[in-house]
Amino acid sequence: MSDVWKGVALPWNNTVIGTIEPKDDLEVIKSSVIWIVLTRLGERVMLPEFGSTLPDALFEPNDPSTVANIQSSVSEAISRWDDRVEFLQMETEINENTLTIRIQYKVTKDANEIAIQTAAIQLTPTAMGL
């Protein structure tokens, strides 16, 4: 895979000389997926539709409708904001204080499948600054 989307992605890794280490394609795309779903709707000033309802789901009831709403929001956000990625499925685990999500997606370029990846996100009140 060529480094078409090579750039900066999280987590930051400093090099020996103090610059930020560039990431490869799949790391950049994974970072993009995570940023899309962790951005609250209305949080971006000039793009109020950017993001998903996932950050607000931490305090929702632990029931099937919450899981369906999360999956719908995440799927829609990824499909709308990153055309390199095709949402495949999402696994959700809700515990008392933790929401764990595993998003499986397919990376495509010019209608060719490059890889199937998984991004895991764990939300807690502490991680969300609450």
What does it look like?
With 130 residues, the chain is of the alpha+beta class. It has a single domain (25-123), classed as Roll (Nuclear Transport Factor 2, Chain: A). Helices cover 25% and strands 25% of the residues. It contains two helices and three strands. The chain has helices at 25-38, 64-81, and strands at residues 85-94, 99-109, 112-123. It has a three-stranded antiparallel sheet with strand order 1-2-3.
Keywords:
globular, 130 residues, 3 strands, alpha+beta, three-stranded antiparallel beta sheet, single chain, Nuclear Transport Factor 2, Chain: A
Question: What would you report as the Rg, rounded to the nearest angstrom?
Answer: 16 Å
Can you tell me the number of structural domains? 1
Q: What structural category characterises the helix and strand content?
A: alpha+beta
Principal-axes geometry comes out as globular
* Percent in strands: 25-35%
Cα separation of the termini: 40 Å
The largest β sheet comes out as: 3 strands, antiparallel
The CATH architecture assignment turns out to be Roll
User: Which sequence of SSEs, written as H and E, runs from N to C?
Assistant: HHEEE
Counting DSSP E segments of at least 2 residues, the number of strands comes to 3
CATH classification, class level: Alpha Beta
Biggest sheet strand line-up: 1-2-3
CATH topology: Nuclear Transport Factor 2, Chain: A
How many helical stretches? 2
Low-confidence stretches: none
| Arithmetic mean pLDDT | 81
What percentage of residues falls in helices of 4 or more residues?
10-25%
